[in-house]
Amino acid sequence: MKPVDSERIRVYYEDLSNEELEKIVRNDLKDLSSVALAFIEAEIKKRKLDLNLEAIADEMNDSDAQEGNEHLADIESYIASLPDKDLEELIVKESNRLNPTTLAFAKEQARQRNVKTNIDAGSEVQTRDLTNAELSSYASIIRHLDCPKCKKSQQYINGTMEYNIYSIIFLTYRSKKIKIACRDCLKKINNAALLKSMLAGWWGIPWGILLTPVYIYRNISIRSQYKSDEPNILLLSFINEHRGIIELYKNDKEKLQEALSKL
């Protein structure tokens, strides 16, 4: 730091009243630079103030730890209140995002309730990349399920991307989401998104006018994807995103069907 900056900091703390100096110490101690701390310590000694910086820092750390423990207790209370099915899906879906303590607590809850599902395997799969063989195996399982939309099984399941845009004067809302279903249902999903974008996308300045043609084009161009007889890239992306859930219920068609219908 330049000498002139240090001098300004020194003068700033010298000009503070005892009450102002104490307020800064108690509220902002953890955020102060080493230079500022050095000047504050000098002022405390010079004024013979009853302020122990080390003790105050310890109090702040204890307070932070207490808040962290209270937050953890709230999370654990929420996890303990979950039904068995929601608990196992939380463990699998969020295993790569939960901190180790929370994940261990959730797994212990499942063990105590004697939840007999493939939780550990699903959790492990969710935290790593799939092999090509695993991806192909999951694709075969998913494609032979009933359609999540019409509940029929005459056609293999595949994927599409649903592009939506709608505008209100100066606000334009955009979204995209992978949908899986049979070919007929994917066509309906795609046509609905196309129609919605064509009717509601334009009415925003400037992004509605500029982006609506892009979303119309995307909804038209994506049609070739769901017409494929093979698992398309969107279905494989969906499988990769939800691989833990698929592993969890791969041997229970009914539960897998139910879980996929909610995604």
Task: Present the secondary structure layout.
Blueprint lengths: L2 H12 L3 H11 L5 H14 L5 H29 L2 H10 L6 H13 L6 H8 L5 H12 L14 E11 L2 E11 L1 H18 L6 H15 L1 H4 L6 H9 L1 H7 L3 H9 L2
Antiparallel strand pairs: 1-2
Helix pairs in contact: 1-3, 4-6, 5-6, 5-7, 7-13, 8-12, 9-10, 13-14
What does this structure look like?
The protein is mostly helical and 263 residues long. It folds into 2 domains: 1-81, no CATH class; 136-261, no CATH class. Helices cover 65% and strands 8% of the residues. It has 14 helices and 2 strands, in the order ααααααααββαααααα. It has helices at residues 3-14, 18-28, 34-47, 53-81, 84-93, 100-112, 119-126, 132-143, 183-200, 207-221, 223-226, 233-241, 243-249, 253-261; strands at 158-168, 171-181. Strands 1-2 form a two-stranded antiparallel sheet. β1 and β2 form a beta hairpin. The longest helix is centred in the N-terminal third of the chain and has 29 residues, at 53-81. The model has no long low-confidence stretch (mean pLDDT 88).
